[in-house]
Amino acid sequence: MSTSLPPRAARRCHNAVNPLHSVGYFSPDYAREMAALGIEDPRAAYFAGRAAPMGAVGAGAVTASFYNFNHALISRHLPAVWDTAEPADVLAARLRAMDATLRRLLGEEVVASAEMAEAAGLALRAAEACDRSARPLYAAHADLPVPAEPHLAFWHAATLLREHRGDGHLAVLVGAELDAVEAVVSHTASGRGMAPEWVLRTRGWTQEDWTAAQGRLRERGLLDDAGELTDAGTQLRKRIEEETDRLDRAPYEHLGIQGVERLTELAGAWAMTAVGAGAFPSDLFGKG
């Protein structure tokens, strides 16, 4: 089905579905499964789990496709992590971790519910209209088999939708001439990104990198002396999101108005449940 969606309906659906993909990165179940493979560093575990669908890739491919991480940080872990665990083993561990995570956060009743099977069907239907072209992370994940269990099929589809939007978003950032650090600095300044402490801790940038990026954004008139977005900066971030929406519209138009509304309703309720169960650190988001 193809139809014209209400403004921002696709973005609202993405914002409801995406947290149910992202919970894995903060899950103790994920850390435990990766440690069982010998991958104990949390950053190595993140890189391995997200990059594994692309195979035993090196740091260059991951820097390009992840975008906002310091290449030096990635190089400390890749390709060395593949000497510890094969990509296929990492993928199997990731799926086991998500099984445990979703059962723990949402409860067995939700996992086994008709609504979960319905959501999986809706999300997979949306993903039918995703496009592999110039979207390396989505394309790699799209080659993976769909898990049989509905809650894992839903998580798989959520991952496809997340990476499809993310790949398009990176193209928009390049077009906006925001480098990796400038992108996260401006996103955080908008009040929607991760807190600076989390960016510095997980992305491999230093405070000096952050300050230098702020200086470059000020020179472009995008950031003021207090580190807040100027009107021009606010408008740029708005255009970035709107262009990302445009590049990501196909899956949700394919799903149709009723399907998008229903998927948003189901996923949004579960995302709230997951947040209430402590799925994310309390200080993850904000300007710091």
From TrEMBL:
Superkingdom classification of source: Bacteria
Protein name as annotated: SalK
Natural source organism: Streptomyces meridianus
